[in-house]
Specification:
Number of strands: 4
Order of helices and strands: HEEHHEEH
Number of domains: 1
Strand order of the largest sheet: 1-2-3-4
Strand content: 5-15%
Helix content: 55-70%
Radius of gyration: 18 Å
Shape: globular
Structural class: alpha+beta
Largest sheet: 4 strands, antiparallel
Number of helices: 4
């Protein structure tokens, strides 16, 4: 009986984390799109953090942004949506637990929030850039952070499992 309660509590906590990740991303994108003029850079912490509003029609680092519209929509809306559903279904079918489940959940939450942008806007809102001097990241958002953290958690969990 305690196992069932534990699993239910874990499932609810995981669902809350996924919904919080999506909600935080949606909120920050809304704030960026309503308060940051397009192309204008706001610099903070000795230019370590920059806020700049960008609409990204492509994928990671704008890859695929130059594809013809129908190909871009197909790839970034339909294919991505199918991959997200497949990933969530695989995690459930494999009965992932612990760190691997957390990693996949962050990947799916971030991907789903960016997918929502693509369906609603046709592009993803990005607004964060970090770096020192000429060494800088591309412009990204909270969903991208969730995806990267989720991928790192999944890789580390997989590596540690193989070391045992």
């Amino acid at each position: 009986m305690f196992m069932a309660i534990g699993r239910t509590s874990l499932s609810l906590a995981l669902l809350a984390a996924v919904l919080s990740t999506i909600g935080c991303d949606r909120l920050t994108k809304h704030v960026a799109s309503t308060t940051l003029p397009e192309g204008q850079v706001h610099s903070y912490l000795a230019d370590t953090v920059r806020l700049v509003y960008v609409e990204n029609p492509g994928g990671f680092l704008s890859l695929g942004a130059d594809l013809p519209g129908v190909w871009r929509i197909g790839l970034f809306t339909f294919v991505t949506g199918t991959i997200l559903l497949g990933t969530a279904a695989a995690a459930a079918r494999l009965r992932l637990r612990g760190w691997p489940l957390i990693g996949v959940s962050l990947l799916v939450a971030g991907g789903a929030s960016n997918w929502i942008d693509r369906v609603v806007r046709g592009s993803v809102v990005d607004f964060l850039n970090v770096g020192v001097g000429p060494l800088r990241t591309g412009v990204f958002n909270v969903a991208d952070m969730a995806i990267m953290i989720g991928a790192a958690v999944l890789v580390l969990a997989t590596m540690s499992r193989h070391e045992d």
